Amino acid sequence: xxxxxxxxxxxxxxxxxxxxxxxxxxxxxxxxxxxxxxxxxxxxxxxxxxxxxxxxxxxxxxxxxxxxxxxxxxxxxxxxxxxxxxxxxxxxxxxxxxxxxxxxxxxxxxxxxxxxxxxxxxxxxxxxxxxxxxxxxxxxxxxxxxxxxxxxxxxxxxxxxxxxxxxxxxxxxxxxxxxxxxxxxxxxxxxxxxxxxxxxxxxxxxxxxxxxxxxxxxxxxxxxxxxxxxxxxxxxxxxxxxxxxxxxxxxxxxxxxxxxxxxxxxxxxxxxxxxxxxxxxxxxxxxxxxxxxxxxxxxxxxxxxxxxxxxxxxxxxxxxxxxxxxxxxxxxxxxxxxxxxxx
Length: 343
Ligand SMILES: *[C@@H]1O[C@H](CO)[C@@H](O)[C@H](O)[C@H]1NC(C)=O
Ligand SMILES: *[C@@H]1O[C@H](CO)[C@@H](O)[C@H](O)[C@H]1NC(C)=O
Ligand SMILES: *[C@@H]1O[C@H](CO)[C@@H](O)[C@H](O)[C@H]1NC(C)=O
Ligand SMILES: [Ca+2]
Ligand SMILES: [Ca+2]
Known about the structure:
Structural class: alpha+beta
Order of helices and strands: HHHHEEEEHEEHEHHEHEEH
CATH topology of the largest domain: Chitinase A, domain 3
Bound molecules: 2-acetamido-2-deoxy-beta-D-glucopyranose, calcium ion
Number of helices: 10
Helix content: 25-40%
CATH class of the largest domain: Alpha Beta
């Protein structure tokens, strides 16, 4: 228990010391503040967590986490601070706060729990990701929502929400830390549009999506951001072929923006109907079953993984994930059909 109080203490003090000068600058230096306090403190290893356990051996990181979750009364969540009020680092004008699917460009500084900085993007260029699509650790995917252009935010991410696969962009982020603290500087929030989604996947900017380009897109996502298919048996080439068949109404083996838009909008209409039906069913059941409906999967991804939602209800269920590698071996059940004048 001692440990957690100390950590919390540092964090709160750190907060007070930051931003006393240079309001509005990007040099958010939590590390200096926490290091100054950290000097008076024993290193983490020497804090007597042994006593809590009543045995001679020090606790493992997993045991410490389990203990912290117990004292928290459940899984730990992220903590975030926006500097409104005293420091007023949130921009006055916020035309668009970041939502799921928006493209966000940001800088970060990352700190270990003892306040030591382990990495920053300043000096090597900012990162651009699509929010809520698994391109970044879950804690940041969640913690950056609601941010505005130029906003500074601190996000403290517990171990549970900091998991990610090896990748180029995140390679400096330690994988076994109990808690990671980030200072995020949001440079730009781009509201999601179908055009932006298409451009994001059109790697060579030739206004078409091709099979080889989709394969390259999947590879780039994995290498750069550690984003993978949840079903490891999915073959990128088969998935790309299926994707082309799914969208390519004029059978020229490539997807134009017009084709992309028509098919996405067709699916979105089906998803809306499915959502309405779900609400109606929930309302009918309201007396007998007051439990919230269980979330049975992930929200549909507007990128390459759009094709995983076979029943068009907006959720990619575990079953859909599991059957995807098989389904991709054949053609899609619904082929794209347009009116002639739409093309
Ligand atoms: C890591 O990759 C595996 C497959 O290689 C995947 O099942 C898992 O979901 C990935 N984890 C994250 C956090 O992306
Ligand atoms: C495509 O355009 C984007 C900017 O919209 C640029 O960053 C990227 O380098 C371009 N790619 C190629 C291959 O020209
Ligand atoms: C439950 O259903 C009844 C009618 O069947 C309705 O009057 C009531 O508002 C509903 N409650 C909720 C919480 O939806
Ligand atoms: Ca292209
Ligand atoms: Ca086409």
